[in-house]
């Protein structure tokens, strides 16, 4: 359990908290999908939940939406236990699921108008259609749309009611770059109106663009939580200097890359010299891989993260080996 997670276990939910989770657990038979996850989301905050496939992101969101019962722990969403939330509570939520449903013969505008009529103060239908990049498809029947276009309809349905809390589970899957940027503008406008947003995404640049804070989840555990510029700690953000000389390849992490580069280039620039500043994606992948290694060393049970029978990690490989010290590099 992380330090941030331990602190959340003991802290009482604050008045300005939209979501409060304490020791959240979910088991499917002998497989633990969530193992004591704890975090808070402040009102008006955009909070991104990151993790590889099977990490527990969607399970967490489904519990908070009231779609799935938890095995243990507590959860409060807008002051209500989601396992007991009624229709008035659900009307305060906006939900964008991972997959699109069939909508028959209705057009995009008809579908959104129907949903808008269910809310006391909906967003203008045409404004939402334009915001998700479907301005030219307002009169098209939903059954005729491509998969990516149907995905945009899902997003539009989630935001039409001006929700207090918006759940976005992989919202821009199938969007082209222009539509993604239009969606980002929509999310920023919702945030400016005070909407609280819980986002899961595989696009790390999307989290960096939109989130106030991010949490990394792996193996059913929260492995770190913090601001986009804080997660992973200062050490994870130390630049990496990489080069090659007659002795082979070298990598050095240093807080003073300029000084090291000046030393290395004093007698001519070495081959393949580059300075790499870790991105949010680099830091996230290393957090996930560290948790996977810890699970393997702990000898998890069959099917458990890191244990025998566990699925192979879906994250791409990340090499972070440091083989040379600053003093060795200058010698």
TrEMBL record:
CDD domains: ABC_DR_subfamily_A
Pfam family, one: ABC_tran
UniProt record, GO biological process: response to antibiotic
Protein name stated in the entry: ABC-2 type transport system ATP-binding protein
Domain ABC transporter: 19-244
UniProt keyword annotations, A-Z: Antibiotic resistance, ATP-binding, Nucleotide-binding, Transport
Membrane topology: Peripheral membrane protein
Region (Disordered): 293-331
UniProt KW rRNA processing keyword: no
UniProt GO molecular function: ATP binding; ATP hydrolysis activity
Organism encoding this protein: Compostimonas suwonensis
Entry's Gene Ontology cellular component terms: plasma membrane
InterPro entries documented for this protein: AAA+_ATPase, ABC_transporter-like_ATP-bd, ABC_transporter-like_CS, ABC_transporter_ATP-binding, P-loop_NTPase
Compositionally skewed regions (Gly residues) per UniProt: 297-307
Subcellular location, record wording: Cell membrane
Compositionally biased intervals (Low complexity): 315-325
SMART domains: AAA
Keyword Nucleotide-binding in record: yes
Superkingdom assignment: Bacteria
